[in-house]
Design brief:
Length: 518
């Protein structure tokens, strides 16, 4: 029966034939950025069970960009980044001689972007055998830095990789001025906008998202590759205490993606012809039935609202259409989960209940499984591949998200072969044009007068609240960005009283716009 299913697979059809994950909890003695990719790449190659040397056949190495190599950043990691061509370094490290070398741009959507691109090239006959890898070693890096230990993590193999993806920064200078930069300060803005849309109280909202993420942590507690394999109760996730302080109101630390991890993942993708030549067992084969990437309106200040995502809706609709499936036909789900609002908005667009019995993650989510920078979705894909191999014929959906619900991806996978000619990467040009042409609210950088709060958050440091971010509307509906005065009384009021729809005044103080609640 298996051979009958695979007999009509086109030779150029891309097939995922290997996957692996790795977690390194060695602290300051852990692996460096290249080593953590090398070990997982070798595991993925081994996972293929190829009868011949697969390393000799690798003609493409694709690496998901490391956070420490994010352009235009001034941090210890960026200033000490020492790898000029990570795809070539990895190719050399595993003993391959890949001629095609790809490096992605920044964004959690990058793994789906990479799988789409590699799949296209395999289908077009440009490459035959690819390694896709990503990860982070930020825990080791940070511990060595704090301990004063040497960090001489470098490799300069020559040449330059091909860069794929958009390199536009996630926020413009005006948005950054008001604190719309760190994701931990931005996703709470979506949280309160969702609460406004749903008409729920802060307490009801907190109960819902705590229960949601308790279920995620339960999955992580049974995952051997999780950074925090601990099942946390909803009460524990919601309770504010020193080890679980508020980060950006209303989110506690246990609701935030954790990026300081040592984790990596890798996939091996070949053409069906190459997989047959290499003698890779059919039990290893998994097919992408559809893949797509779509962006929302790029800048936060231009979004139509903060409780929805037209791009998630369009992206997932397109992959369901291309694969002739639906969300109801998905047996397994991994919804990108950097913060609760990312999950809530995605499932709303997908039409999935927050308590869907299928569960919303196969890893445990970024706050519990771990959020290795831009490459988390590669871990999700590896986990999904394992699930699908154990459940032949079933289908899985993996979603991806970069920046601030800005860049989205979705992939549908199954051991069941794609019927007919393979053409499963969706051309989203027209979809993107439609989203980009959506009517944006009027916006001003210099508001003055009476105003109403559209959404808000209060950002905390270890010492406590230090900044409120308010996205508001003037009486004529014009949107603006602002902060409040750095006053403890005002900051506490923003968290203790209902501020959604609250009125006040806004004006420019010579440095920035200041909203003063009534």
């Amino acid at each position: 029966m298996t051979e009958v299913l695979y007999s009509n697979v086109n030779d150029n059809t891309p097939v995922l034939v290997g996957c692996a994950q790795y977690v390194d909890k060695s602290g300051s003695d852990g692996k460096n950025f290249l080593e953590i990719l090398d070990v997982v790449a070798r595991k993925a190659i081994e996972d293929c069970n190829s009868q011949n040397s697969l390393v000799d056949e690798l003609d493409n190495v694709t690496v998901i960009r490391f956070v420490a190599d994010t352009p235009n950043r001034d941090s210890a990691t960026n200033n000490m980044w020492g790898y000029s061509n990570m795809p070539k370094s990895l190719s050399n490290s595993v003993g391959a001689c890949a001629n095609s070398l790809i490096y992605t741009t920044t964004g959690g959507n990058s793994p789906q972007l990479a799988v789409n691109e590699v799949s296209r090239r395999i289908n077009d006959g440009d490459i035959d055998c690819a390694l896709i890898a990503g990860g982070e070693a930020l825990d080791t890096f940070t511990k060595r830095l704090k301990s004063g230990l040497e960090i001489n993590w470098t490799d300069h193999p020559g040449g330059e990789p091909e860069i794929i993806g958009s390199s536009i920064d996630g926020a413009n200078d005006h948005e950054k001025l008001y604190g719309i930069f760190d994701p931990s300060a931005v996703y709470p803005l979506f949280a309160n906008a969702l609460r406004a849309k749903e008409g729920t109280s802060p307490a009801t909202h907190m109960d819902e998202i705590s229960e949601l993420f308790s279920e995620f942590s339960k999955v992580a507690s049974n995952n051997e590759y999780a950074w925090f394999p601990i099942h946390r109760s909803a009460k524990e996730i919601a309770e504010i205490k020193p080890e679980n302080r508020v980060i950006g109101y209303p989110y506690t630390k246990y609701m935030n993606s954790i990026m300081r991890v040592n984790q990596s993942s890798a996939l091996i993708m070949t053409s069906a012809r190459k997989a047959k030549e290499m003698g890779i067992p059919k039990s290893k084969w998994v097919f992408m039935h559809a893949g797509a990437c779509v962006n929302d309106i790029w800048h936060m200040s231009d979004r139509v609202n903060y409780h929805s995502s037209p791009a998630i809706k369009a992206c997932t609709d397109s992959v369901f259409e291309r694969s002739n499936t639906s969300q109801e036909k998905m047996d397994f789900l991994d919804i990108y989960s950097c913060f609760p609002s990312a999950v809530q908005i995605a499932i709303n667009e997908l039409g999935i209940d927050i308590k869907d019995p299928r569960g919303l993650t196969v890893t445990g989510g970024l706050p519990y499984f771990g959020g290795p920078g831009n490459s988390y979705v590669l871990n999700a894909m590896a986990s999904m591949i394992k699930q699908l191999r154990n459940n032949p014929g079933k289908f899985g959906l993996v979603t991806a998200n970069g920046w601030y619900l800005t860049k989205h991806g979705a992939g549908i996978f199954s051991t069941k072969p794609v019927d007919g000619e393979w053409n499963q990467v969706v051309d989203t040009k027209k979809i993107q044009e439609n989203i980009n042409s959506m009517t944006k609210p009027a916006f001003t950088r210099s508001p003055e007068g009476e105003a109403t709060v559209e959404t808000y958050t209060v950002v905390h440091a270890r010492e406590g609240a230090y900044r409120a971010i308010v996205i508001g509307r003037l009486n004529d509906g014009t949107r603006f960005l602002s902060n409040t005065e750095k006053d403890e009384t005002i900051l506490n009021k923003m968290m203790q009283e209902e501020m959604l729809g609250a009125t006040g005044t806004v004006s420019f103080n010579g440095k920035r716009n200041i909203f003063r609640p009534n």
